[in-house]
Design brief:
By secondary structure, the protein is of the alpha+beta class. The protein is 14% helix and 28% strand. The strands form two sheets. The protein has an eight-stranded antiparallel β-sheet. It has a three-stranded antiparallel β-sheet with strand order 1-2-3, with no helix packed on it.
C-alpha cells in the first residue's frame, strides 16, 4: 500500500507545471539563451510553445526564477532605490536590457532598454523608428513619450524608441 502512495506522489509531482515556462534539464524543454517576451501593461507573456504569463502582483522569487529560465541569470544582485516616488523599488536587471521592478516583494513593473528585451503586443521594440505608427507623442522632461498597445514608449532624441515600460518605474521627472 505504501508503495502505491509513493508511485502516486511521484506521478503527481512529475505532472506539476510552472505555468508553461521552460524547465531546464527536461529533455526537449531546454531554456533558450534569450527568449523574446511580449511586454504588456499587465506584465510579461511568453509566446509560442512555451506560452505563459508572468503578471503583475506575483512574488519576486517566482518571477525572477521564471525569467531566469528564459533569459539566463540576472546581472548582479537586485538593487533597491529607496528614493522612488512610489516607495522603495527593487530592480532586477537581465543582460538583454530587461529590468523587472518590485515593491514589497511583488512584481509591479518592467523597463526595456535594448531590442532583445522583448516587444510590445503590437511588435514595437527598442530601436524602432520614432514616432511609432498611430501614436500621439508628447514632450516630457524625459523626452518624447507615447502610449502604444498599453505600453509607455520613450524617445530621448526623437529618432528611435529608447525605452518601453509599464507599471511601477523609478524615473525622476
Amino acid at each position: 500500500m505504501r508503495g502505491r502512495w509513493l508511485v502516486l506522489a511521484g506521478v503527481l509531482l512529475a505532472a506539476c507545471d510552472v505555468g508553461g515556462l521552460p524547465r531546464p534539464g527536461v529533455p526537449g524543454i531546454e531554456a533558450p539563451t534569450s527568449a523574446a517576451l511580449i511586454l504588456s501593461r499587465e506584465g510579461l507573456t511568453v509566446p509560442g510553445a512555451a506560452a505563459g504569463e508572468i503578471s503583475f502582483g506575483r512574488a519576486m522569487p517566482g518571477v525572477v526564477e521564471a525569467v531566469r529560465r528564459l533569459k539566463g541569470a540576472p546581472v548582479g544582485e537586485p538593487q533597491t532605490n529607496t528614493e522612488c516616488g512610489a516607495g522603495p523599488v527593487t530592480a532586477v536587471r537581465f543582460r538583454d536590457g530587461l529590468t523587472l521592478n518590485f515593491m514589497n516583494g511583488a512584481f509591479l513593473g518592467w523597463v526595456a532598454d535594448a531590442p532583445g528585451a522583448g516587444a510590445a503586443p503590437n511588435g514595437l521594440k527598442v530601436g524602432d523608428a520614432w514616432p511609432p505608427p498611430g501614436a500621439a507623442a508628447q514632450e516630457t522632461t524625459l523626452g518624447s513619450e507615447a502610449e502604444v498597445a498599453g505600453v509607455q514608449v520613450l524617445s530621448r532624441d526623437g529618432g528611435k524608441v529608447d525605452l518601453l515600460f509599464a507599471g511601477v518605474t523609478c524615473f525622476f521627472r
